[in-house]
Design goal:
The protein is α/β, with parallel strands linked by helices and 311 residues long. It is built from seven helices and 19 strands. The protein binds NADP nicotinamide-adenine-dinucleotide phosphate.
Amino acid sequence: MAEEIRDVVIMGSGCSGLTAAIYTGRANLKPLVLEGHEPGGQLSMTTLVENFPGWPEGIHGPELIENMRKQAERFGAEFRIGHVSKADLAQRPFTLTVGQETIKTRALIIASGASARWLGLPSEKALIGHGVSSCATCDGFFFSGKEIAVIGGGDSAMEEALFLTRFASRVTLIHRRESFRASKIMLERARTHGKIHFLTNTVVEEVLDVAAKEVTGLKLRNLVTGRQWTLPVSAMFLGIGHEPNATAFAGTLETDDDGYLKVRDWVHTGVAGVYACGDVADRRYRQAITASGTGCMAAIEVEKFLEENGR
Ligand code: NAP
């Protein structure tokens, strides 16, 4: 049997990948969407999304993703569970290794996203969406008038802490060291803000209360003195960075120092026919709507590329 060659494969099923699937589907390109390690992407882990235009009452992240997926399927997108471990972009068509299988494709859209870093505590995992969050823009609003903790010592943590002061009665920023990676200006802004209080040399040992299915406090330990205590808070926001999911392209596509794919003109990688969209190439905005926007752009570029190459 002749080996199948797809017109376009989309890596990732978050909002950028699904938007690319809707557009390439409507262009009759029968996209194959590889769902990746976190099907549905970061939205599938959030609760109410109130800033995606078109949903005046808000919509739950998993429902928004499910709707996009149905929309893509309606236009002929095919979905397969799988994660690309290797990509040969030197030969055309491109070859992707997915488990034991290889898939050939004329064009590729990389929408594999970025995964928030977590502390790795079982109690943290159990309370994601119930007071544990990695997105202040998405979830801060739910904690109006409450005491909140932010973890991290970089610009993301400062930004989250400053943003959360709009809602919280008090923000405690918890950092594992004495010195900070954050830029001076961001650190200064956070330090001088009346609502933000700093705890340094401090780590979270447990998030309370898994049995109650809500965050009621954090068990903390000071790494210098060894002191342990419980800080009562209603939410814990992680600001300890993101990891772009681009390891399959190490050495093949250009990345910045933190592994985000470099793009020019929004979605073009250094290889013609290979486009990157959403959080894997965006460390700045990281919003559902911007990821969908670049997903749309990548799809339009694929259409153009295939047409110019005789498809
Ligand atoms: P980052 O600079 O890598 O900082 C991550 C912070 O999280 C560090 O303080 C690190 O602690 C801490 N951390 C990492 N793993 C941890 C763990 N397991 N437990 C406890 N703490 C942990 O990441 P980022 O803040 O996301 O920033 C990434 C890049 O984006 C930076 O270049 C930043 O300037 C940029 N950025 C800019 C802005 C802005 O300008 N508005 C906003 C956000 C991000 P250690 O210091 O001890 O390693």
